[in-house]
Design a protein that fits this description.
The protein is mainly beta and 66 residues long. The chain has one domain. 6% of the residues lie in helices and 45% in strands. It has a five-stranded antiparallel β-sheet, with no helix packed on it. A hairpin with a 2-residue loop joins β3 and β4. The longest helix has 4 residues. The termini are far apart. This is DUF1918 domain-containing protein. It comes from Natrinema gari JCM 14663.
Length: 66
């Protein structure tokens, strides 16, 4: 599943301080090999270079939790 800017997503990366948090896609970047990575903005910062495999679409009610 690909994501667009302003999509709400949950990050799953045990090496990130934002693991398990819901954020917003603020930028998409495509490498010369066709791989897409994302920059995700959170309340306390952002995570850049996130591969699609580390993201899942946030549930509609996640926005109400914040």
């Amino acid at each position: 599943m690909s994501f667009e800017e302003d999509d709400r997503v949950v990050l799953h990366d045990e090496h990130s301080e934002f693991d398990g948090e819901t954020g917003t896609v603020s930028q998409t970047m495509e490498s010369m090999f066709g791989d897409v990575t994302y920059t995700i903005s959170f309340d306390d910062g952002q995570e850049a270079g996130v591969p699609e495999d580390d993201l899942e679409a946030a549930a509609a009610d996640d926005a109400d939790d914040e």
